[in-house]
Structure formats: C-alpha cells, structure tokens
Amino acid sequence: MTHTKRLNTRTVSKNSHLKIEDREDIEVGLNQGLNFKEMAYHLRRDPSTISKEVSRNRIR
Known about the structure:
By secondary structure, the protein is an alpha+beta fold. It is 53% helix and 13% strand. It contains three helices and two strands, in the order E-E-H-H-H. Helix 2 (36-43) crosses helix 3. The model has no long low-confidence stretch (mean pLDDT 84).
C-alpha cells in the first residue's frame, strides 16, 4: 500500500522513485526556465522532490 497526500486537488505519490522520464522532464523544464513548483505540478510530485533531485544531480 502506497501513501498519498493531497496537494492542490491532485494526488501526489509518496515514497516512490522518479522514473527516467521524470528526470528528463525535469531537465526540459530547467531548460525552459520553469520553477520547481511548475515542474512539480506537471509531474504530479511535491516541489521539494524536484528541488532535491536537481540539487543532488545538477552538473555545472
């Protein structure tokens, strides 16, 4: 059984890993200048998940 919480009337999955497609979508969002909240809305994830993923894996 997975845990879910409500965020802005959409179901957000908790305790699940990001898929490679999600990571690719984050990369596209960064290139388009989207903020974490906008990317999170499209991916149905929490904004903190997006920010942690970016800070953990960003290469400058």
